[in-house]
Design brief:
Layout (H helix, E strand, L loop, with lengths): L2 E4 L6 H10 L8 E4 L10 H15 L3 E3 L3 H11 L11 H5 L3 H9 L5 E2 L4 E2 L10 H15 L4 H4 L14 H19 L2 E3 L8 E2 L12 E3 L13 E3 L8 E2 L3 E3 L9 E6 L4 E6 L10
Parallel strand pairs: 1-2, 2-3, 5-9, 9-11
Antiparallel strand pairs: 1-12, 4-5, 6-7, 6-8, 10-11, 12-13
Helix pairs in contact: 6-8
């Protein structure tokens, strides 16, 4: 059963459709994954989310996608902790007639998927995390996203203690879940200095331009290393990055470059250039 993994789509529905036409994908038996960031930047986040829901309904467990940081931005806008006017490409999702269903679909997505073929995440891992640790921590985040606490989980900064129905111990427990969500959806470089070891570094450029103390998360000798690769997206400036143990698939579709997919079994690459209309501003 071949597994095809598509990089960050970012609301570029036409480009996604063009890539799907290039894939020798058999919906009767093959698996289809994406690295998250289904929404934002492109002008049809609604269409991409509806496509993902349809694939989930039709393919079941053979379709997997994880939550990316832009998907978290969508949830934060829906929860009222981010201003939607700062992310106009997300406004159509919030205004869609099926908005509640789309938001619930995103809330129900995993933050990590582990199979014999690969570990699928959106961004990065800490070197101290084994794959068992990733699974445990991810499960707690996923439970939080599907609970009444989800608005606090997607809120950036310190969680609010203003809600009287949220006990202090729950807010404290949420700190670990928020750290897990941040690493899995935002990490690119980690600090290698002893006094700040493994803190995330806010850097999005190519690795060659990173500060001296910042190194890509996958260069550490992490406990997560296994015979099967870690597949991720998120780092457009890294570009398509294929190694035995890691596969980075964000090739900058939302920046006017390409949308990529890889067949896990033989690392065959499929790419299409972005369809310009996907990045045109709409009223």
């Amino acid at each position: 059963m071949p597994t095809y993994v598509i990089g960050d789509i970012h609301g570029c529905r036409r480009t996604l459709e063009r890539l799907l036409q290039e894939l020798p994908f058999d919906p009767a038996c093959d698996a289809l994954w994406t690295t998250g960031d289904l929404v934002n930047r492109g002008n049809d986040s609604v269409g991409v989310l509806r496509w993902a829901r349809e694939q989930s309904d039709q393919l079941g467990d053979r379709f997997r996608t994880v939550i990316g940081n832009h998907d978290v931005h969508l949830l934060a806008c829906a929860a009222g902790s981010q201003d939607p006017s700062r992310r106009p490409a997300l406004r159509p999702v919030l205004d869609a007639p099926d908005s509640a269903e789309l938001i619930d679909f995103v809330r129900g997505l995993p933050v990590a998927v582990s199979t014999r073929a690969a570990l699928l995440i959106h961004a990065g891992l800490l070197p101290t995390w084994s794959r068992a640790t990733v699974a445990t921590r991810a499960r707690r985040v996923e439970e939080g996203l599907q609970s009444e606490l989800w608005p606090l989980l997607v809120q950036r900064g310190s969680p609010s203690r203003e809600r009287a129905d949220v006990a202090d111990d729950l807010v404290v427990d949420l700190q670990e879940e928020r750290q897990t969500l941040a690493v899995l959806t935002r990490a690119r470089c980690l600090d290698q200095r002893d006094d700040r070891l493994h803190e995330m570094v806010d850097f999005s450029g190519p690795p060659s331009e990173a500060p001296p103390h910042a190194v890509p998360w996958f260069t550490f000798d992490g406990k997560w290393r296994d015979d099967s690769p870690v597949v991720f997206g998120h780092w457009a400036a890294l570009g398509l990055h294929l190694q035995d143990t890691v596969m980075g698939l964000d090739s900058g579709c939302s920046w006017g470059h390409r949308l990529s997919a890889v067949r896990l079994e033989d690392q065959r690459v499929f790419q299409v250039p972005v369809v310009p209309r996907d990045l045109e501003r709409t009223a």
